[in-house]
Amino acid sequence: MKIRAVIVEDSRLARNELKELIKKHEEIELAGEAENVDMGFELIQKMNPDLLFLDINMPEKDGFELLEMLDEVPITVFTTAFDEYAIKSFEYNALDYLLKPINEKRFAMALEKVKLQINGGEEEKVTTEKLSEKSQIFIKDGEACWLVKIGDISHFEIVGNYTRVFFEEKKPLLYKSLNQVEEKLPKQSFFRANRQQIVNTNFIENVVPWFNGKLKLQMKNGDEIEVSRRQSYIFKDKMSL
């Protein structure tokens, strides 16, 4: 199976360097290239690639801003002229990053990581607009950034016009409303508990009967979430045999 890749990089020299490296790997199909973030966004929307080679530092908008524009982020390998200390504030789950000028052996190592993730990820392409549990989203909150798999998120919660995302020990804000988030989530594993919260049912440790026909969900991370009475009936129906 071919791995469809796109390059978003403002330097023509760097793009050519990547293209020459890609030519040496028959399993990679270059689906297109872009020299700035806006062109890159249009290209990704059109080509729906498996793999993104992304420059971090570009004029006008940087690579992080491109990731913020995407509902679903492809497997991402950053390309940068700066060493790891220059991007240490980025607590990313990006698969890898390549330091310019890119070493051929180091490029091959990055591709091996890409193939392992694809082959181990049951990566059937989702044909609808909805995300799958294997899909990843980009979150930037202040100086910290993350690429997070949907399946690793325990729950979402309204905070004003934004949404707080809970994963591991972190809870950054996503600059989208909870309703916008809900439209994209896989319904088989995410459930609207009440007006303020959506839970990942895979993270529920226990279900406790509560007042007035309501339920309380005890999450694996220790959080407790109250299910509204109406949603409690729906939850019982959804989770019963």
UniProtKB/TrEMBL annotation:
Record SMART domains: LytTR, REC
Source species, domain of life: Bacteria
Domain HTH LytTR-type as annotated: residue spans: 137-241
Gene3D superfamilies: 3.40.50.2300, LytTr DNA-binding domain (2.40.50.1020)
Occurrences of domain Response regulatory (ranges): 4-115
InterPro entries reported in the protein's UniProt record: CheY-like_superfamily (IPR011006), LytR-like (IPR046947), LytTR_DNA-bd_dom (IPR007492), Sig_transdc_resp-reg_receiver (IPR001789)
Keyword set, alphabetical order: Phosphoprotein
MF-aspect GO terms: DNA binding; phosphorelay response regulator activity
Pfam family, one: LytTR
Chain positions with 4-aspartylphosphate modification: D55
Protein name (record): Two component transcriptional regulator, LytTR family
Native source species: Flagellimonas pacifica
